[in-house]
Design a protein that fits this description.
Elements lengths: L6 E2 L1 H9 L1 H9 L9 E2 L1 H22 L4 H5 L5 H12 L1 H4 L6 E12 L2 E12 L4 E7 L7 H6 L1 H13 L14 E7 L2 E9 L2 H20 L28 E2 H7 L19
Parallel strand pairs: 1-4, 2-8, 5-6
Antiparallel strand pairs: 3-4, 4-5, 6-7
């Protein structure tokens, strides 16, 4: 490997699964983005910034900042609409009254030769149930069957089983206690719910271990055979697969839009289990 890789995330795993060449360029060679990911570029950039700001508003809500103070920061049409949808969803705003709520929490656990790391928007829990919430600001509601097979859904639930005992009084969390919920700010009445079972956990963790081992031993990083993915890849010029970016609305309907965040993995302590 050109760079010693020590950690994996749902984004890097998804990249490797979708296109090993993109994984190599992004995570091993760490090449800066040479091309626009989606068109129209300025509108898409604005939407991404608004999505980041919405996550901050929700985090501030759950750490106790008064709602009326937060609402002043919802200063665009999209943010105002999303914030109204969130505060009107009593099942969400009511989570603040639970004793077990963690927002913007990072979990880490060994995964073969790597550490698997994930940052959760919110985990709400009591003695019986652990609900993982992820806020999505998509312009089109993705199909639930697509979300079910994405690495985010599989990693977030499996990692909570592996690394979440400290949230459960030191006791292991049973997969059957876990539910993952995607809440869509533009579609507040149509969240996606994914329960979990022990069989699913075993399948997911075995698959993640196998993929981690494959990544560790990889020496060749072929390009994806699904050329359509290249429309939304910032590295397409490295592969001579076009210069025109795909439409942002289409990428949300065909793929789960990737949400990248910078983490210093070396500063995140492993959770023993």
């Amino acid at each position: 490997m050109p760079i010693e890789l020590t950690s994996l995330s749902q984004s890097s795993l998804q990249d490797y699964f979708d296109c090993p060449r993109r994984f190599e360029l992004r995570y091993l060679q760490k090449i800066s983005y040479p091309a626009i990911e989606t068109e129209p570029a300025l509108e898409n950039e604005k939407h991404q910034r608004e999505g980041e700001n919405f996550h901050r508003l929700v985090q501030q809500f759950f750490i106790g900042i008064p709602e009326e103070q937060i609402s002043k920061l919802a200063n665009t049409d999209n943010l105002a609409n999303w914030w109204e949808n969130f505060t009107s969803a009593k099942d969400l705003s009511g989570l603040k009254n639970l004793s077990g709520v963690r927002t913007e929490i990072t979990l880490s656990a060994p995964l073969g030769p790597f550490r698997l790391v994930a940052k959760y928007d919110l985990i709400a829990f009591d003695a019986k149930k652990f609900r993982v919430y992820d806020w999505k600001t998509y312009r089109k509601r993705p199909k639930s069957d697509l979300l079910a097979i994405r690495f985010q859904t599989r990693v977030y639930r499996a990692l909570l089983v592996q690394a979440g005992a400290f949230l459960n009084g030191g006791k292991p969390i049973n997969p059957e206690q876990i539910e993952m919920i995607y809440w869509f700010s533009n579609f507040p009445n149509d969240p996606a719910h994914f329960s979990y079972t022990s069989d699913q956990f075993k399948r997911d963790w075995d698959a993640l271990l196998n993929l981690a081992e494959e990544i560790k031993n990889a020496s060749n990083y072929p390009k994806t055979e699904e050329i359509k993915r290249c429309l939304y890849c910032p590295y397409r010029s490295y592969c001579n697969r076009g210069v025109r970016a795909g439409d942002a609305f289409d990428v949300e309907s065909e793929h789960e839009a990737e949400e990248y965040f910078e983490l210093n993995f070396d500063q995140i302590g492993e959770i023993e289990f």
